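subagent[fold] <- orchestrator: predict structure for attached chain, return tokens only, no commentary.
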Amino acid sequence: MGATEENAMVFDIIESLRGKGWEPRFSASGPRLAEAIENYKSLGYEVKTIPVKELVAEGCKICFEDESDDSAMIFTRGSGSSEDDELFDE
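subagent[fold] -> orchestrator:
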């Protein structure tokens, strides 16, 4: 499979998630990933992560060959309004 087909598959995965209401946010790893997930959840979002290794074309995977690399793309969906948020209470 060539890079063009692989890129199209990645695009299809992301578009399929968008069709289900998921919005791609950014990629992160380690403590930054955990912090971002916690922050999005505290804002009332539903959070989904997909390992970056699953979202890159074969030719691009060399950057992610280290098994300790836990980089993931963060997707969120939902209203993003926390019921516990006192800032917007009337």
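orchestrator: received. Logging for downstream: The longest strand covers residues 23-28. Residues 3-19 form the longest helix (17 residues).
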